[in-house]
Specification:
The chain is of the alpha/beta class. It has two domains: 169 residues, Rossmann fold; 116 residues, Rossmann fold, CATH 3.40.50. It is built from nine helices and 16 strands. The strands form three sheets. The protein has a nine-stranded mixed sheet with strand order 9-8-7-10-6-1-4-5-11, with helices on both faces. Strands 13-12-14-15-16 form a five-stranded parallel sheet. Strand 4, helix 2 and strand 5 form a beta-alpha-beta unit. It is globular, with a radius of gyration of 21 Å. Bound molecules: flavin-adenine dinucleotide. Flavin-adenine dinucleotide binds next to helix 7, helix 8, strand 15 and helix 9.
Length: 318
């Protein structure tokens, strides 16, 4: 069966959810093999999790290179494995780092690259990836016609499904190419205790309608009641009400959660570009003509300062 290499993202010794989604999607196009890099002592438990989610083989490589340098050691490892194992495809999460790794691997392999896929299926000529393009106005299905397909997949594109497999661990000695940029220091992001925006299954976003930085309190309360991440429109970010790291849209982050709640957001095309692939969209806006209502599954015409607290209370009561 076609071997699909899946780069397993991990943090703090645990597998990150997008990697489980990749393993789930990989099973649709072949037999997944997990690639676990620079996990140190956590490698065994990460490998076990990868096995639970369908990895027949788990390639483990360790070394200070993976933590002391930027992406090149990971590129070395993935390229080497893709060549040695004759992989049928390489899957990487669509994060900033993931896309850089994927692009470099594709270049080294002389292959085609597809980024930001939201769906994968098996096709006659290899994996078929669905992308959402032109501010999510169109869905494009594409295959790679040259070399080993390298595909990045957006978080939340599939619900992780366990499917226990052998998960046989194979240690790999990577021939590092060196010449990599070194990490000088790391500044941990101040944790809000909320899920990472691009990975969260639920996102609650506020826009100019929130009116002020303090107005985001109602957005945060609803988000916390749902275990959601908080997003913001550019108008809210430009006004200084919420950090740019939380901006959703063309010049912010792309999110694709199971549920997206837009409060006081008009639905400009540049905002849609970052959230239109969300599975269920709910909008709260006091203007019944707001363009956001053209794409919602559920719309509430009303004042967000009345509607959001009621929603929060209702969820808290359940
Ligand atoms: P508005 O368009 O002002 O809408 C506010 C909405 O709140 C209105 O619909 C109003 O009816 C409603 N409202 C007001 N008070 C209440 C209330 N009390 N209760 C309920 N509803 C209320 N935008 C992004 O979001 N992300 C991007 O990444 C992005 N990138 C851009 C890139 C470029 C090159 C350009 C040109 C623009 C970009 N924009 C982006 C900006 C975008 O065009 C819009 O200006 C922006 O999305 C508007 O934000 P908003 O919906 O919060 O504000």
């Amino acid at each position: 069966m076609a071997e699909i290499l899946v780069l397993v993202d991990h943090a703090d010794g645990a597998v990150r959810k997008p990697a489980l989604e990749l393993l789930t999607l990989a099973r649709r196009i072949g037999e997944p093999s997990a690639v676990v890099l620079g996990a140190g002592e956590a490698a065994a438990s990460i490998a076990a999790t990868a096995g639970e989610y369908g990895a027949a083989t788990v390639y483990v490589a360790d070394g200070a290179e993976f933590t002391d340098q930027l992406v090149v050691p990971k590129v070395d490892a993935l390229t080497q494995l893709a060549k040695e194992k004759g992989a049928a495809a390489v899957l990487v999460t669509s994060s900033g780092e993931g896309k850089e790794i994927a692009a470099r691997v594709a270049l080294r392999l002389g292959s085609g690259l597809i980024t930001d896929a939201v769906e994968l299926e098996a096709g006659e000529n290899g994996p078929v990836a669905t992308q959402s393009v032109f501010a999510a106005s169109y869905q494009v299905r594409s295959t790679v016609s040259h070399g080993v397909p390298v595909i990045t997949v957006k978080p939340n594109s599939a619900a992780p499904e366990a499917a226990p497999a052998a998960g046989t661990v194979e240690n790999v000695a990577v021939a590092f190419t060196g010449n990599a940029a070194k990490v000088v220091s790391r500044t941990p992001r101040v944790s809000t205790g909320r899920p990472e925006l691009t990975e969260s299954a639920i996102v609650v976003s506020g826009g100019r309608g929130v009116g002020a930085a303090e107005g985001f309190a109602v957005v945060e309360k609803l988000a916390d009641s749902l275990g959601a991440a908080v997003g913001a429109s550019r108008a809210a970010v430009d006004a200084g009400w919420y950090p740019h790291a939380n901006q959703v849209g063309q010049t912010g982050k792309q999110v694709s959660p199971q549920l997206y709640v837009a409060a006081g957001i008009s639905g400009a095309i540049q905002h849609r570009a970052g959230m239109q692939t969300s599975k269920t969209i709910v909008a709260v806006n006091k203007d019944a003509e707001a363009p956001i209502f053209d794409l919602v599954d559920y719309g509430v015409v009303g004042d967000l300062f009345e509607v959001l607290p009621q929603l929060t209370d209702e969820i808290g009561a359940r």
